[in-house]
Amino acid sequence: MHEFFGPAELDALRLSLAVATRSVLWSLPLAVLVAWLLTRARFHGRMLFDAFVHLPLVLPPVAVGYVLLVLFGTRGPFGRWLYEHFGVELAFSTNGAALATAVMTFPLMVRAVRISLDNVDRGLEAAARTLGAGALDRFASITLPLMLPGILAGAVMAFAAGLGEFGAVITFVANIPGRTRTLSLALYTAIQSPAGDALAVRLAIISFALGFAGLLIAEWLARRVRRWLGR
Amino acid sequence: MLAVNLAMRRGAFVLDVAFQAPTPGIVALFGRSGAGKTSVVEILAGLLEPDSAQVRLGERILIDTRSGYALPAERRRIGYVFQDARLFPHLNVRGNLRYGLKRAPAEPHGISFDAVTELLGLAPLLARRPYTLSGGERQRVALGRALLSQPQLLLLDEPLASLDASRRAEVLPYFEALRDRLAIPMVYVSHHFEEVLRLADHVVLLDAGRVVAAGGIHPMSLRPELGAIVGPDSVGAVLEGVICEADAARGLARLNFGTGTLLVAATDARIGARARVQLFASDLILATHPAQGLSVRNSIAGVVQSIREDDNEGQLVKVDIGGASVLARVTRDALESLALQVGSPVWVLVKAVSMRSHAH
What we know:
In chain A, 78% of the residues lie in helices and 0% in strands. Chain A is built from ten helices and no strands. In chain A, helix 1 (7-40) crosses helix 5.
């Protein structure tokens, strides 16, 4: 067992967890906002916006990574601005890997949040209104708690999927041990090296176990919250 | 005074409603489903936008579209009890009750949490979650939640419609207690005349988006427009009076309705209590002479006021019994053999057991 988690595996596992956690934390509030806009708001170009949000689902991940590199690379317009104003460097960093992961898992999260928002009974919001709750108050005290099953499920799903993001990450932030070499990148590297078979098997098992656990936890959480809401 | 004047068109449905009702008190919006009753209360609450409207509650203007003014629903201070209760599933009963209370402006003479839980018998339910409550309990919590938001007007949209008869009988007394103990004006939407009879002071009859008749409960009970909605079997004058004698042993009470008295079946009548009875038109017998040797307990002298065709093949005879009127259904044949016409003196016979009194 001691041999199973060598430094390479531990490093990759730790990085994957850090990247997935950061990506979920950053994208969750935005996903709630976007889901709300797509479900409730009426504006011109909503269909275009909808398509744009779901683009990462159908684009080759490498293309997404390339776009990120162009925009957020050290010489890219956003990348330079971030570096000059906040000293933040995304290219070739763990935060960059988190950004790439967030972009790739964003549609997944928006979908889950959106379904839960669709299921919120507008009648309850109307009732809250007659009880004196303004728009923001209603959202915080009624809508958001009732969306909780979907938000949690979406977050866990995005987390589990984010643990294994590959194409966008390797294109945007490369494959740097200890910084951007997450589980799937480490697995890829192991497969490429002649003596990496045993390591590859171990990394594959870890990835498999994490993904499976993620799905189980998502389902379990959703059930618990639904029972809490009495559905 | 609640003064309402509103118009709205949605596709083929046209709503054009104007009425005034005294406050405090309960005004019933009565009519078939689809008559526009719910639309009216949704507009009052601010949940539905009318094409044009003026709504005034006492001195307070709630909507005046002529000057482009409409108070947002959350600032209108109108409590709303929905047909389906709409309790918040993520809060327990206490949380639901406090929701409106927390957001209401401080009212020195407002209704307190303890008063509401006591009035509606909610104390044993406080820690329960909405999905564990029965339909009747849900409606009581919804009512308490609306009351605690310190409303200046309470809208009750068929609050008993989703309940079966026994649950309805369980909740109805709470509404009566509310009317008798709190001075909050209420608009009560219903298509059950029984509820209207027990609760309302003023009735607005809606049909196809328009007011077809409006007024106090007694004059409204005589209107043919009401008969067309409740059906021939439920047509009958509603008399309101004070219990002046009570004989619990024989299950009888005497109701003084101003210019006369009626003996009614009642087991729990209190002397001095206000009560209402409905005299169903088909239960009344007309006679041209005072009756003798009959089991009928009430015999009241009156004068035929009008005779109208009933949709049930009979004739509805309206009899003035001095200050109030009653309706009696007789066949055309009986009408001819008694030679009844407007102005004829008649005796109205009615059995005590055929009336149910409602303490008021």
